């Protein structure tokens, strides 16, 4: 499997090579089961990757060739993951309630931030796992508020701390855990994530087209 999957001499398997290997080796099974791209990326997220995007080939083989679907699901769901980021990491942002009142202008502003993020993170075909790892700035498997803020800054999307907090508390981390894991990321992030923020549109009323009584009398 090491050679087929493209692992290096140290046993590192790049996430892109890993994904390609699964698609090539399990194509018929994936089609038969109607497995989606997001589900494949969810499977990939169950593995531990180093900062170079590689995972241990010896941990991959037993799962890829596991025939018992129920056993596979159990193994994937119980794999040891790093603990979520410590609360102190978000201390500057997460230990206070957002003071940003969401009126129409603020809603438009917050939605514009998500539109910019859509353009940066999902500029081509949506690749959720790559987008997730790009926002997970410290590589711990979670997107903390500080990760999110740093990712916006890196992509030249200027947002205040109050706006970051408002986005997290209002739409992206409504349970206020202080972080987003990959499962939550798949639900909240994507090419149309800005549609989560509704902005009241101005109501345009057509002029009254019913003729007045004087006009009716004028024309008999």
CATH class of the largest domain: Mainly Alpha
Query: Widest sheet: strand order?
Result: 1-2
Q: What's the mean pLDDT score? A: 78
State the helical fraction.
Answer: 40-55%
- Describe the largest sheet: 2 strands, antiparallel
What number of domains? 2
Name a few traits of the molecule:
2 domains; mainly alpha; 220 residues; 50% helix; Recoverin, domain 1
Would you give an account of this structure?
A two-stranded antiparallel sheet has the order 1-2. Helices cover 50% and strands 5% of the residues. It has 13 helices and four strands. It has two domains: 2-77, no CATH class; 87-196, EF-hand (Recoverin, domain 1). The protein has helices at residues 2-5, 15-25, 27-32, 37-44, 57-64, 69-77, 91-94, 104-121, 128-135, 145-154, 161-172, 182-188, 213-218, and strands spanning 12-14, 54-56, 143-144, 179-180.
Short note summarizing the structure:
The protein has 13 helices and 4 strands.
Fold topology:
Elements lengths: L1 H4 L6 E3 H11 L1 H6 L4 H8 L9 E3 H8 L4 H9 L13 H4 L9 H18 L6 H8 L7 E2 H10 L6 H12 L6 E2 L1 H7 L24 H6 L2
Antiparallel strand pairs: 1-2, 3-4
């Amino acid at each position: 499997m090491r050679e087929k999957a493209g692992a290096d001499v140290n046993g590192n398997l790049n996430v892109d090579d890993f994904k390609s290997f699964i698609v090539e080796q399990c194509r018929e099974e994936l089609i038969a089961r109607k497995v989606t791209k997001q589900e494949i990326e969810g499977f990939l997220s169950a593995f531990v990757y180093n900062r170079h995007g590689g995972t241990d080939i010896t941990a991959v083989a037993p799962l890829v060739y596991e025939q018992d679907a129920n056993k596979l699901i159990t193994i994937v769901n119980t794999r040891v993951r790093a603990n979520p980021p410590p609360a102190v990491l978000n201390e500057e942002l997460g230990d206070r309630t957002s003071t940003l009142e969401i009126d129409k202008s603020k809603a438009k502003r917050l939605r514009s931030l998500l539109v910019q993020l859509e353009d940066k993170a999902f500029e081509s075909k949506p690749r959720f796992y790559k987008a997730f790892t790009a926002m997970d700035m410290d590589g711990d498997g979670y997107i903390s508020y500080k990760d999110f803020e740093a990712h916006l800054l890196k992509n030249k999307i200027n947002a205040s701390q109050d706006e970051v907090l408002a986005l997290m508390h209002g739409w992206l981390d409504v349970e206020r855990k202080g972080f987003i894991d990959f499962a939550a990321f798949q639900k909240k992030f994507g090419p149309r994530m800005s549609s989560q923020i509704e902005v009241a549109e101005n109501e345009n009323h057509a002029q009254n087209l019913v003729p007045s009584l004087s006009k009716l009398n004028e024309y008999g």
